[in-house]
Write a structure and sequence with these properties.
Length: about 850
């Protein structure tokens, strides 16, 4: 009922917006004939932003700018003629003869220009609803110029702060000189990539603040960024040299922006009531935020007095200065490291070790290596120039080979940093023994209590016991094994309990619990059968609903390897990925516990005779967008670079609001094989969604996921399974013939959406091209779907025809040749 009402409502909204398009287009555009003068403004189509002339407070100078239309406090987000104000109100904003957007003064002198290099006929400028002012040659052409590429001091949603590591071109925020003077001030902020992409603020050319590297979800040096902004930001590497940061908040009911103010502070502000702004976060809350405040090997803690201290094993370089509170020269090592001593000819003594510092803002200038956690430590220990390391699941291994600068101790959040110290500076062995002994005793007591409680609980449950006795004893054995493993580990690591930490992060369910929650994996609770094992629906004792995937035994991984993978994958969190709640490993059984999705999978909706009606075009487009975002996150935004390898409608789950969530990601990793582009002998995946190179040669890459995405996209639009494209000669011919519209599901065939649907079909066809190189990357797919890229290339022959799993390369070449003779026309897809 609720759903039906929603669909009606959105249909109405869509109708209204179609209506508005025709009526409203007049007021958001500037052309040579339709310029604006000082007293006029234009307003974006949806009414969110206004463009016009304004004076800053306490100033009579006139500037051209863009501001929020719906917020009572006048808030400028962009200024055109920042460095060249108009002195009176006789200025105009228009299009020049050569097609430039220009501000002219009373004597028609050019005050400001968009500085196009080539002249264009009949160009026009349009203020988009995102707040972007764009200059277009003609309606179908790409943007010739856009204000988002020339930001002022404000970072708003959908804008891209970028840097190109090949050309060195940067898009930066620049502060105003003063609140009454928008001209370019001393401070700038933007992305830079040294070894890892980071956000920086500069005072002139001097670095004054850094965010810490991006780990796929957050900047790890920003305290409390986790909870609040996890969904909003993405930092994208387009693999063509450009890295950009952009954000869209999931809660669109109020605007949020970031302003680099006149003092060099970056402020996050939201307008909750459309009246004023509330600053919700800012840089430089404490002195510790100032870059390198405590010098080399000094650590800053805003809760201490004085705030700076040398790391353990280090002492002030100049004690007198340090005591006076001048920390600039920092600290130096007290006891040389073993390898330094060896290099200087004296006897080496005992091996160096690591001091663990918790909750740290990691130092600047990290290197990067792909080593896993354990290997990261050894790599650092073996290399004499390595002074510290840290590991973050989203980034990987970060060793440091130079002085550690800009360290900060957080009160919450932060990352563990391991600093290399000479053996004599570390805890004495006796202490370690003591710690281990205490740990063992506590462990034994704890285990005892657990066993006791478990025994009592089991005694209670005896009535409805489902598992055979042999399996129950296994639980005990296994628990003990695990405990032993932990103890062994802690001895190796001088008391740093690596596995313990991991286990704490990821809840471990026991088999008994999962068995009882799923009624002993009863057939009636089975939700489906994936490539990696069956999935059951369950309900925990606290009422939470879960989905339990019982992995088939083929993975061939050891316990520890498996745990590592699962922990890593559990850290991948994105609103378009299904969340992993925990796991269970007992004896032969390995299970993954996921959040339960009440609406099951996309295929259940799409290919059901009744339900597709619930999926109108808007919703379908949202689903397509969501899937592409999730996929982008897997491919790009997380350092793990996961290739899904089995993307299909049944692996897309839908939550209550029909938001898509990709499931089964990371399975390929757990089941072996985690290179970027690799050959695999055992082809996982589903016939029909597999790219030709994967099906034929077992070659997989990001582009094979793009292929599967393309198939999925076409399925979503057509409402038909891809298998019908093979079986039914007629059906697949529709890809070729001019009648693209015929492919579209009847339910969504409305003239209002035709262009958008055709565009999606076009993108789908680009994704399913035979050659991986021809297919776009996911980030480009997203830009195409959002119409940021307007001119789409023509797709080459789609792979649907005569495809077979060829036994060898020669016959696959035959296939290709056959395809290229078959002259396909898809020109219809181009816009009209
Ligand atoms: C701007 O144009 C409007 C309408 O074209 C006109 O009424 C107004 O006087 C003009 N203002 C100035 C300052 O030229
Ligand atoms: C404008 O001037 C008044 C009076 O000098 C001052 O109180 C106010 O802070 C100024 N506003 C800005 C934004 O500079
Ligand atoms: C505005 O200033 C320009 C010079 O910048 C001058 O030529 C023009 O006459 C002025 N207009 C008015 C109305 O004062
Ligand atoms: C356009 O070019 C002129 C001359 O090179 C320069 O002074 C001006 O700052 C440029 N404007 C913009 C918006 O880049
Ligand atoms: C520009 O627009 C004018 C008037 O609409 C039209 O006559 C002219 O042909 C156009 N020029 C080009 C190159 O499209
Ligand atoms: C649109 O503009 C581009 C570049 O200015 C030009 O190449 C193209 O032919 C134009 N298209 C139309 C339909 O005018
Ligand atoms: C900007 O830098 C200049 C010198 O580089 C300095 O004189 C001026 O005070 C600075 N302004 C601010 C607001 O820090
Ligand atoms: C920025 O640098 C200028 C000198 O270059 C200095 O006077 C000012 O205090 C600095 N401001 C900040 C916030 O670092
Ligand atoms: C958005 O935020 C407002 C105010 O905090 C809240 O009432 C609303 O429920 C939020 N909406 C969503 C979708 O999170
Ligand atoms: C702090 O020490 C550095 C290096 O010795 C020196 O250059 C600087 O002037 C000192 N700063 C102050 C405020 O004394
Ligand atoms: C030690 O690390 C540095 C920097 O990462 C690297 O250049 C060097 O080759 C490494 N040395 C050895 C022996 O691995």
């Amino acid at each position: 009922m609720e759903l039906v009402r929603n669909t009606n409502l959105s249909a109405l909204l869509v109708l209204l917006s179609c209506f508005c398009l025709q009526f409203g287009s007049a007021t958001d555009t500037i052309t040579a004939a339709k310029f604006i003068n000082d007293s006029e403004t234009i307003i974006s189509n949806g009414g969110d932003f206004k463009l016009g002339f304004f004076s800053p407070p306490n100033s009579t100078d006139r500037y051209v700018g863009i501001w929020y239309a719906e917020i009572s406090v006048f808030t400028v987000v962009w200024v055109a003629n920042r460095n060249n104000p108009l002195k009176n109100s006789s200025g105009i904003l228009t299009i020049s003869e050569v097609g430039n957007l220009v501000v002219l003064d009373g004597q028609k002198k050019v005050i400001w220009s968009s500085n196009l290099t080539n002249s264009v006929d009949n160009s026009s400028a349009q203020l988009l609803d995102s707040g972007n002012l764009v200059l277009q040659g003609n309606t179908t052409g790409a943007f010739l110029w856009e204000s988002f590429q020339h930001p002022s001091n404000t970072f708003i949603e959908k804008m891209k702060i970028s840097t190109n590591v090949r050309t060195g071109k940067k898009v930066l925020l620049t502060s105003w000189k003063s609140p009454s003077e928008p001209s370019i001030g001393n401070f700038s902020a933007g992305i830079d990539v040294r070894y890892l992409p980071e956000f920086f603020i500069w005072n002139g050319s001097r670095l004054i603040w850094r965010s810490g590297p991006w780990n796929g979800q957050v900047f790890i040096g920003v305290q409390k960024m986790y909870s609040a902004y996890r969904d909003g930001f993405s930092l994208v590497d387009d693999k063509e040299g450009t890295f950009y940061l952009t954000f869209t908040f999931s809660n669109e009911s109020f605007p949020t922006n970031y302003v680099l103010n006149e003092q060099g502070k970056l402020l996050q502000a939201s307008s909750f009531n459309e009246e004023d702004w509330e600053v919700t976060w800012s840089t430089f809350k404490t002195e510790c935020d100032v870059y390198a405040n405590c010098g080399a090997f000094g650590s800053c803690n805003s809760q201490n007095t004085p705030i700076c201290s040398c790391l353990r094993g280090f002492e002030p370089k100049n004690r007198e200065e340090w005591n006076r509170g001048n920390w600039t020269s920092g600290c130096v090592r007290r006891t040389p490291l073993q390898c330094e001593r060896v290099n200087h000819g004296s006897e080496g003594g005992k091996k160096d070790g690591f001091l663990k510092l918790t909750k740290m803002k990691l130092p600047d200038l990290a290197d990067w290596s792909s080593a896993r956690e354990e290997k990261c430590r050894n790599q650092c220990l073996e290399n004499c120039s390595c002074v510290a390391y840290a590991f973050d699941a989203g980034i990987g291994c970060m060793p440091w080979t130079r002085s550690l600068i800009d360290l900060q101790k957080f009160s919450s959040g932060g990352i563990d940093l391991y600093v290399r110290l000479a053996y004599s500076e570390l805890d004495k062995e006796g202490n370690v023994k003591l710690i281990v002994t205490v740990t063992v005793i506590i462990g034994v007591i704890f285990t005892g209590i657990c066993i006791y409680l478990l025994w009592r609980w089991m005694a209670k449950q005896k009535g409805n016991m489902h598992l055979p006795l042999s399996q129950r004893t296994k639980i005990y054995n296994h628990r003990e094994e695990e405990e032993m493993l932990l103890l062994n580990k802690s001895e190796d690591n001088h008391g740093e309990n690596v596995n313990q930490a991991k286990l704490e992060e990821l809840p471990i369910f026991n088999l008994q619990e999962l068995a009882s929650s799923t009624n002993s994996f009863h057939r009636s609770n089975k939700l489906g059968q994936g490539g990696f094992g069956p999935v059951y629906r369950g309900k925990l004792s606290d009422g939470q609903e879960i989905a339990v995937k019982r992995l088939s035994k083929a993975s061939g991984q050891g316990l520890e390897e498996f745990m590592n993978e699962v922990v890593v994958i559990s850290k991948l969190q994105h609103r378009n990925l299904v969340r992993l709640l925990g796991c269970c490993i007992e004896g032969e059984e390995k299970m993954l516990v996921y959040e339960y999705m009440p609406n099951k999978s996309l295929d259940a909706f799409l290919f059901d005779p009744i339900k597709p009606k619930l999926l109108d075009w808007r919703r379908r487009f949202k689903i397509i967008e969501g899937i592409s975002r999730g996929l982008l996150y897997l491919h790009r935004d997380s350092r793990l670079r996961i290739i899904h390898r089995d993307l299909k409608a049944s692996n897309i789950l839908l939550d209550e609001e029909l938001n898509p969530k990709i499931s089964d990601f990371g399975m390929a990793r757990i089941f072996g094989g985690n290179e970027d582009q690799a050959n695999t002998t055992r082809v996982v995946g589903t016939y029909g969604y597999m790219s030709p190179e994967y099906a034929m040669k077992g070659q997989f890459s990001e582009k094979s996921d793009v292929f599967s995405f393309g198939v999925l996209l076409l399925e979503i639009i057509s409402g038909r399974r891809n298998s019908s494209f093979y079986d039914d000669e007629q059906a697949w011919k529709m890809w070729n013939v001019d009648n693209m519209v015929a492919l579209t599901d009847l339910i969504i065939r409305e003239p209002c959406f035709e262009m958008e649907i055709l565009r999606c079909i076009h993108v789908g066809l680009l994704c399913v091209q035979d050659f991986a190189n021809d297919r776009p990357t996911v980030s480009i797919v997203i830009s195409m779907l959002k119409s940021e890229i307007i001119d789409l290339p023509l797709p080459k022959q789609p792979a649907f025809t005569e495809r077979q799993i060829a036994p060898d390369a020669s016959s696959s070449q035959n296939n290709l040749r056959k395809c290229s003779i078959n002259n396909v026309t898809v020109t219809m897809v181009q816009g009209r």
